[in-house]
UniProtKB/TrEMBL annotation:
It comes from the Bacteria. InterPro entries: Nitroreductase-like, TM1586_NiRdase. Residues 2-226 form the Putative nitroreductase TM1586 domain. This is Nitroreductase. GO terms for molecular function: oxidoreductase activity. It comes from Bifidobacterium imperatoris.
Amino acid sequence: MNLLEAMKERHAVRNFTDEPLTAEHIRSLSGSIAELNAAHGLNIQLIHNVDDAFGGCPTHYGRFSGVHNLVALIGADDADAPEHLDETIGYVGETLALETVALGLDTSWVVLHETSEHEGAWTIADGQRMPAAIVLGHGARPGRAHRSKPAEELGLVSSGIGSYANAPEWFHAGIEAVMLAPSALGKQPVQFTLLDDGHTVQAEALDGVQAHLCLGIAKLHFEIGAGAEHFTWAD
């Protein structure tokens, strides 16, 4: 299963069985985490096969059970622009989530409170923050597809292009991929605009809970759906 197939297959799962991760699961995910940490300067950590992967931390939203495995998404914070870490964590975390689905496992995004005062197995250094985490394992029941905003609300075009219908097929494919992206409370606080030159895309976070985290997730989906060779991101 490639990432495009995993994106279509992925649905949030919050209840897991006690079946442990295999050595191959751990090896593959640990390798991906090491590569992504090096590439993005993060401190992501895999917690696996423990009694309570949340370490006693309360969740921001949703009821979970049987959570024995977790990817702690940790990185250095920028006090002047905390949204930068949120967006990076969204992008990199969703990369790991899709790779996890491709391995045949189930996942869900989760935001935890009190992550610096916990009983968990992760380590947060001074100046670092954990905006979110990904739970993973063998789902007790299948996840369900979520509702999405219409494509025309998520994808806009500049006046020189005319209308969404006039946008190239790669832009439509990118927006269809964004429609599949998970977001906080399902609100999808993001917007993608194709500019007049026909190949530059402006991605924006709108008002909403964890909007920049959602933007990072959605940008990865757009890249996978549209094909990175077809466009460039606006500065």
